[in-house]
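Below is just one:
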Amino acid sequence: MKITWKALLALFFYTLGVVGWFYVGGWMILRGPVRGVILAHMAGDLSLIKLAVALVQGFVYLSLAGGVWCIGYMLSDHFRKDE
């Protein structure tokens, strides 16, 4: 099996997309909205508005994470195709 520079580039972009998904979707959502809800609950300051804002932020972060993964996958697919 011959490994070409296109295959390596495709693997690089796919890996970059997956790592980007984990960073934006996992790390940022845990550091932002989830942490804010937990701290507000521990402080006894959790309200319905804060919970709704955290849900919207979580949805935005997960949507952005999906977009990051999609861009990585599309770049990977572009280099994977044989021309």
